């Protein structure tokens, strides 16, 4: 159930959950349905791991996955204010991916993911890497950048005052 996987393996898991093989897309003319939640984590306490394991035993889809990436190393050696990525001191990041083949699984898989996340949330820090955000609102985008957000607003005002580059996780010009 739990295994250590290199980062490239975690990326492959993410691709399998979210993406269908091209042959399946051509046959069904649809894409795989998915939902994900992500957040930084401090220590992986025994209680958190037990709740995660308990939740995963009830997964409604074999495509559902939990990815825990150990941070540290080179990421944590860069000063927090040196780049836009501010949360360099987080010990781990956790992603729960829920993937299923058709609309019939929407309710069960989305409910499963939300229940597992709700049970883990008290132990998770409210930090995230901006590329892992979905449509979560401006406050979550600001939180992803931490204190670097104010510096990015200034840069946005200088280099993109008309907000041409506004897709994904937008920073509004001041």
Highlighted features:
Vanillyl-alcohol Oxidase, Chain A, domain 3; alpha+beta; 2 domains; globular; 40% helix; 174 residues
Describe what this molecule looks like in 3D.
With 174 residues, the protein is of the alpha+beta class. Helix content is 40%, strand content 14%. The protein has 7 helices and 3 strands; from the N terminus they run H-H-E-H-E-H-E-H-H-H. The protein has helices at 7-18, 22-28, 46-56, 74-77, 106-120, 138-145, 148-159; strands at residues 33-41, 65-70, 92-100. Strands 1-3-2 form a 3-stranded antiparallel β-sheet, sandwiched between helices. The longest helix is centred in the middle third of the chain and has 15 residues, at 106-120. The protein is globular and about 50 Å long. Residues 20-30 have low confidence and may be disordered.
How large is the count of helical segments? 7
Instruction: Write down the overall geometry.
Output: globular
- Percent helix among the residues? 25-40%
Q: What is the name of the CATH architecture of the largest domain? A: 3-Layer(aba) Sandwich
Sequence stretches where pLDDT stays below 50 over 5 or more residues: 20-30
Distance between the termini: 48 Å
Query: Helix/strand/pairing class, anyone?
Result: alpha+beta
